[in-house]
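> call design_seq(struct)
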């Protein structure tokens, strides 16, 4: 069975799942940004890699620090610290780029450290209300509470506008 965008949204947003949040088992790629734990749907992640050389891109949107190039592909790279309003720092030994595809484009997100791939019960998901969000342009709409942990779940579709000017997959323009 082929996974559709609606299936992925139901996995990330239990509120849209007709069978209810407790019926959804989620697999998350978890990572740290300035000590805060975040996650994203593992089904959306294509690759996790060490930072390499970035190439400058014209008309960068906020947070885009450059582009990774391969023979067929150009992948904009966004520093999540900038998007989340956290002071940018240098890359460390644990820094990783998490590559995912969204709207026909690949995008790389820089994380301070990728910590684990975690399977959680969808019942732990909570919708974050506007008054609970720390910034006006919040990139998460859910959080997952597990014992002594709170993982904010990135809404990858909200990150997409940050790279609208970046080249599409298979082009360098």
């Amino acid at each position: 069975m082929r996974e559709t965008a609606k299936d992925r949204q139901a996995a990330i947003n239990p509120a849209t799942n007709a069978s209810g949040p407790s019926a959804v088992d989620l697999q998350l790629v978890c990572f740290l940004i300035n000590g805060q734990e975040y996650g994203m749907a593992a089904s959306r992640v294509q690759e996790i890699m060490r930072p390499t050389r970035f190439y400058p891109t014209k008309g960068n949107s906020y947070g885009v620090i450059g582009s990774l190039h391969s023979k067929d592909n150009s992948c904009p790279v966004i520093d999540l610290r900038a998007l989340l309003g956290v002071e940018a720092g240098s890359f460390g030994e644990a820094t990783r780029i998490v590559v995912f595809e969204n709207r026909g484009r690949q995008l790389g997100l820089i994380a301070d450290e990728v910590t684990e791939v975690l399977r959680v019960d969808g019942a732990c998901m909570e919708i974050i209300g506007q008054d609970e969000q720390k910034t006006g342009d919040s990139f998460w709409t859910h959080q997952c509470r597990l014992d002594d942990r709170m993982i904010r779940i990135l809404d990858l579709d909200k990150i997409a506008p940050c790279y609208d000017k970046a080249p599409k997959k298979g082009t360098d323009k």
